[in-house]
Write a structure and sequence with these properties.
The protein is 32% helix and 27% strand. The protein is of the alpha+beta class. The strands form 4 sheets. A 5-stranded antiparallel beta sheet has the order 14-13-12-15-16, sandwiched between helices. It is globular and about 60 Å long. The two termini are 27 Å apart.
Length: 301
């Protein structure tokens, strides 16, 4: 198969591993910088161009689209979908998962466990917003934040009020969530491929830090997840419409709570922690499912 990998940097660990997995399984992998890919939108034959050349049709496309280029990246992916290429994750599903608030609303509608979350626009509603999530301590998150950036733990009501007022004053979109104390600064990253969790790792925050992201200095270790955690991760990925997802779960007294569903999960931490060939499993999923024009949405919406 001819497989396009949409990635800004072919030297990134995840991109390199996907190239290796394609090569080992006899496929032709081509890395395309999504910001150098462009399209002519016409009624007849959809095409994708790259650095002045019209690209020949691909059998499949693996989107590794950074959060900062979601809008443009999903537009390019949509064009690939219209050419009939099989997307590992569809453009609609990626857009859905990248909108933190929308994704939580979709999960809550299907009964998936979540930390209590509040969202408001007016400063006069801050007091009720704080009560809504059980009071301080609480977590304040920028909706556009990634890798733990723009996430603040407010330990007192006064601190929470100050931070929320500051964000609102900057016209930043934020959500407020209850702080799950019993999680102890740890979360579980479940890597879902297809309809099963193929690997899981525990991410533990540094002492004095509550964000467990590996980019924030957190550590990763192998963990055995429970059947409810496994079922929650698979259900969350399915609700988002993602074939491959990193589902971040907190262990709480009331069961597994989903924090986030990531449509472009990094492979380095989880492959090293678990010793599993995740990249190979992803390519195997493409082999089993890639068919021309198999996109559920056909590039729509």
């Amino acid at each position: 198969m001819k497989i396009a990998i949409l990635s800004r940097n072919k030297n990134l660990y995840s991109t390199r591993r996907l190239i290796e997995a394609c090569t080992q399984r006899g496929h032709d992998a081509v890395v395309l910088d999504v910001l150098r890919s462009y399209m002519e939108v016409v009624p007849s034959k959809p095409e994708v161009h790259f650095k002045g050349n019209t690209l020949e049709p691909f059998d499949a496309v693996i989107p590794r689209i950074g959060a900062s280029v979601t809008f443009y990246g999903t537009a390019v992916l949509r064009q690939f979908e219209m050419t009939g290429a099989f997307p590992l994750n569809e453009s609609v599903a990626i857009s859905r998962s990248r909108d933190k608030l929308r994704s939580l609303q979709l999960l809550s509608r299907k009964g998936v466990g979540l930390p209590s979350t509040g969202f408001a626009h007016h400063p006069d509603d801050i007091d009720d917003l704080i009560k809504m999530v059980g009071g301080a301590p609480l977590v304040i998150k920028l909706l556009e934040g990634t890798q733990g950036i723009g996430v603040v733990l407010a330990e007192t009501k006064k601190a929470a009020e100050s931070v929320i007022e500051a964000f609102m004053g900057l016209k930043a979109n934020i959500m407020v969530q209850e702080y799950i104390k019993e999680a102890g600064g740890a979360d579980i990253r479940c890597l879902v491929v297809g309809d099963k969790v193929v690997a899981a790792m525990k991410r533990q925050a540094l002492p004095g830090e509550f964000r467990s992201n590996l980019h924030r200095g957190g550590s990763a270790s192998l963990i055995k997840i429970t059947p409810p955690e496994r079922a929650t991760a698979v259900k969350a990925a399915k609700i988002m419409g993602l074939n491959v997802a990193g589902v971040d779960i907190l262990r709480s007294e009331r069961g597994p709570l989903v924090m986030e569903v990531n449509s472009s999960p990094g492979l380095e931490g989880i492959e090293i922690a678990t010793g599993k060939d995740i990249a190979g499993m992803i390519i195997e999923h493409i082999e089993k499912n890639a068919k021309h024009n198999r996109t559920k949405t056909k590039g729509k919406g």
